[in-house]
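Notes continue from the previous slide.

Worked example: a multi-chain complex. Inputs as given:
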Amino acid sequence: MGLLDQEFGESSIVITKAEDLLNWARLSSLWQLGFGLACCAIEMMATSASHYDFDRFGVIPRPSPRQADIIIISGTVTLKMATRIKRLYEQMADPKYIISMGSCSNCGGPYWEHGYHVLKGIDRVIPVDVYVPGCPPRPEALLEGLLKLQEKIRKESLRKKV
Amino acid sequence: MTAEEIYKILKEKFPNANLELDDSLPHEAFITWNGVEFIEIATFLRDEKELLFDSLMNLSGVDDNNAKKVKNEDGTETVEPGTLSVYYHLHSMQLNHKVTLKVSVPKDSPKVESVESIWKTADWHEREAYDMFGIIFLNHPNLERILLPYDWEEGSYPLRKDFETPEFYNGMRIPY
């Protein structure tokens, strides 16, 4: 898809595929579940704040899983929390996406060996779309993760999730 | 006031109590005692004019990691389970001095008198020690789990040295 203002420049009609339109709408307003777990959540909040401005990509925190499209697992997932996260994920309406942020939620991070209480990767409970490495990842890294997710959504087809 | 002076005062007041001063380690000396009846000593520590320990800074459980295998005469081995300890870090806001107390209890029946009635801080700290080490605090008003999930396996105490991580919790695999 070209830039909209150029499309509108010559005529007032834009022609596109329904799939592309849907994908474009979806990837441009990924509402995020307002939800943080550990120190990664601090970086996530920094990303939402004015300096990095998550909002320019259409990411707005929503207080309810019913209104959210994306859940950022930002921090250490304890076993106690994992069942709650699973429930939150199941309460979200389709299509829904997951960014696993930071080492802890990717693979257990520093708790990989002696963490009796830590789930070794959120992908043991729910399917992950994008993994963002780092401990914690800088806001730029989280933004990169979001852009990767947008790329992924752009290639989606109506028939199946990519 | 130093630990030595506090120890002397305690020893004078409670000549029969099994109190000892441990200064073998390079850090500040601390007072150990063995036995259950701690309430009297704790109340004395709080109320005595010279001591006035009005604040319990921290209460923590410790696994002393001193389990031993003992060979019997007939060649069989028995395991001595070792001890668990509770450390009390006391501070006096009025007199600005502090002291550390330690009580050790056998691991197979770890029972300590609760000091919740003396320092309210002890309430949640004791619940944590109960949760992580299985130390029973006698006369605690609400000795329930505080950190672990309520469906955590009974009798499995994660901070004990002999703890082994279970394979699964609620269908989720725990080991890496």
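Summary box: Helices of chain A lie at 4-10, 18-28, 39-48, 79-91, 102-107, 139-154. The first strand of chain A starts at residue 32 and ends at 33.
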